[in-house]
């Protein structure tokens, strides 16, 4: 139950206790509050019961004395009957409104009790009796006054509450001791329960710390079906997702390294040839060969630029600020087809398009559409045909490749995903994930299906209208 001081946001310092310490403290506080409430209620109940018992006893004694008919003798010669002897520290007095002084006392010599209006009221006949507490010499007395058979008289009986207070003090001490013992016991029980209940948490913490230290993403053993088991299961799911992400990133690094190595090697070779041809004494290249080398250099630079752009586009969580404007989607499709034709001159594109305008980021949409055509060109045979249809904002691209397996379809738009069939082919598995990212950014959708000819069909839908928006104003 260690604690360490930390800085509070408002500048103060506080102690951060462990969960076991907090459970123990809360259990002890709860037990202490319960014990205090019960003890207070018991104390009040006992006090009220003792008070009521004493009041009943004093009233009974006073009435018996009045009924005995010897009030004058008792107050004159202080002869106490049997009913008065049974109680300790009893005082008696007679209030007679016709005498001087009005109060005739007996055994009031130690502490003179000052009787007042309630007792006089009983003597006057205004009340049958009165009961109250009077303090004399710092000591409390319970005073009972009853009306006698004579007019203008009241018989008063008083008894010290010192004995009752002694009992209550002892009761309070006993309750306090038992309360403290109960709080200590509750604290120990809470500590034991916390240690026993938090043992699975400590095991889970040790497992997580081991994983963090070794980076070995092995699953954590799950025992039972309680909240700790649910936490371990959720953590295992997180570990599985993290392991899959790490595997995809490693595969991406391997694929990107392979994809970058090939154009870089070719680019270096072509540049070396061009440099040697320009060196004095070196073999000169024909004009046609120089032009071909320069075209290869441009193509390789464009390939590198595309790959790096794909990586940058997917690496950032939030897209950069783009220029949003009305876009003629058929025009973008035409530009994308022209670009892909230069890369795959043997392909034939069967294109039918209707008018469609969207509001969005032109470069991103063009990259997404180009990636769809690049994917079709990648899987189609060299002399194959790619069917392109654009109807009401739905762009459908059919290729003549082997199609996409059912098991791969839920993942083809995931980042870094590459199916087993595509491992030996060019590409890094980023193109279709960019298509989905662009579609979602423009509130559109993208899906995969089977083409009528047996290949793959990729369908991109972007919201818009068949006519331009002349009143469009950028936000």
From TrEMBL:
Record domain Histidine kinase: where: 255-466
Stored Pfam families: HAMP (PF00672), HATPase_c (PF02518), HisKA (PF00512)
For this protein, the record's Gene3D superfamilies field holds: 1.10.287.130, 6.10.340.10, Histidine kinase-like ATPase, C-terminal domain
Keywords, in A-Z order: Kinase, Membrane, Phosphoprotein, Transferase, Transmembrane, Transmembrane helix, Two-component regulatory system
Entry's localization field: Cell membrane
UniProt xrefs under InterPro entries: HAMP_dom (IPR003660), HATPase_C_sf (IPR036890), HATPase_dom (IPR003594), His_kinase_dom (IPR005467), HisK_dim/P_dom (IPR003661), HisK_dim/P_sf (IPR036097), Sig_transdc_His_kin-like_C (IPR004358), TCS_sensor_his_kinase (IPR050428)
**Molecular function (GO) terms listed?**
phosphorelay sensor kinase activity
Major subcellular site: membrane
Residues in HAMP domain copies: 195-247
Q: Which reaction does it catalyse?
A: ATP + protein L-histidine = ADP + protein N-phospho-L-histidine
Q: Does the keyword Lipid metabolism apply?
A: no
Membrane-spanning residues: 21-44, 171-194
What's one GO-annotated cellular component?
Answer: plasma membrane
CDD domains assigned to the protein according to its UniProt record, in alphabetical order: HAMP, HATPase, HisKA
Name the PROSITE patterns for this protein.
HAMP (PS50885), HIS_KIN (PS50109)
Domain of life of the native organism:
Bacteria
Query: Cross-referenced SUPFAM superfamilies, in alphabetical order?
Result: ATPase domain of HSP90 chaperone/DNA topoisomerase II/histidine kinase, HAMP domain-like, Homodimeric domain of signal transducing histidine kinase
Q: What is its EC number?
A: 2.7.13.3
**What is the name of the protein in this document?**
histidine kinase
The organism is Nocardioides agri
């Amino acid at each position: 139950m260690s604690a360490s001081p930390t800085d509070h946001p408002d500048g103060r310092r506080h102690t951060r206790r462990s969960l076991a310490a907090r459970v123990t403290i809360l259990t002890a506080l709860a037990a202490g509050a319960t014990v205090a409430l019960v003890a207070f209620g018991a104390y009040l109940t006992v006090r009220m019961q003792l008070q009521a018992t004493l009041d009943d006893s004093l009233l009974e004694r006073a009435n018996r004395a009045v009924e005995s008919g010897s009030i004058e003798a008792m107050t004159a010669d202080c002869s106490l009957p049997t009913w008065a002897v049974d109680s300790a520290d009893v005082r008696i007095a007679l209030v007679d409104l016709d005498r001087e002084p009005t109060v005739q006392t007996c055994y009031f010599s130690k502490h003179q009790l000052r009787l007042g209006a309630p007792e006089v009221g009983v003597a006057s006949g205004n009340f049958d009796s009165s009961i109250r507490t009077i303090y004399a010499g710092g000591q409390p007395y319970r005073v009972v006054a009853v009306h006698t058979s004579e007019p203008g008289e009241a018989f008063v009986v008083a008894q010290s509450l010192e004995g009752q207070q002694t009992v209550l003090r002892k009761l309070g001490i006993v309750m306090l001791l038992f309360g403290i013992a109960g709080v200590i016991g509750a604290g120990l029980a809470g500590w034991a329960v916390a240690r026993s209940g938090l043992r699975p948490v400590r095991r889970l913490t040790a497992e997580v710390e081991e994983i963090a230290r070794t980076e070995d993403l092995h699953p954590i053993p799950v025992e039972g079906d309680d909240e700790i088991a649910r936490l371990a299961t959720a953590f295992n799911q997180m570990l599985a997702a993290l392991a899959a992400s790490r595997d995809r990133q490693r595969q991406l690094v391997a694929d990107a390294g392979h994809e970058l190595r090939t154009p870089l090697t070719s680019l270096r070779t072509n540049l070396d040839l061009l440099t040697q041809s320009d060196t004095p004494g070196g073999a000169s290249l024909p004009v046609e060969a120089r032009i071909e080398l320069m075209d290869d250099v441009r193509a390789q630079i464009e390939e590198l630029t595309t790959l790096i752009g794909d990586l940058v586009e997917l690496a950032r969580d939030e897209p950069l600020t783009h220029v949003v404007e009305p876009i003629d989607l058929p025009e973008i499709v035409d530009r994308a087809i022209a670009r892909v034709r230069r890369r795959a001159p043997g392909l034939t594109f069967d294109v039918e398009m209707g008018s469609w305008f969207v509001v969005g980021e032109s470069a991103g949409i063009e990259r997404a559409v180009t990636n769809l055509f690049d994917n079709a060109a990648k899987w189609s045979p060299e002399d194959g045909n790619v069917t392109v249809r654009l109807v009401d904002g739905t762009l459908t691209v059919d290729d003549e490749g082997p199609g996409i397996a059912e098991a791969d379809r839920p993942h083809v738009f995931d980042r870094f995903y590459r199916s087993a069939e595509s491992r030996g082919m060019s590409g890094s598995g980023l193109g279709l994930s960019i298509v989905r990212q662009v579609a979602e950014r423009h509130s559109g959708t993208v899906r995969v299906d089977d083409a009528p000819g047996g290949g793959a069909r990729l369908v991109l839908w972007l919201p818009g209208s068949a006519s331009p928006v002349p009143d469009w104003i950028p936000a």
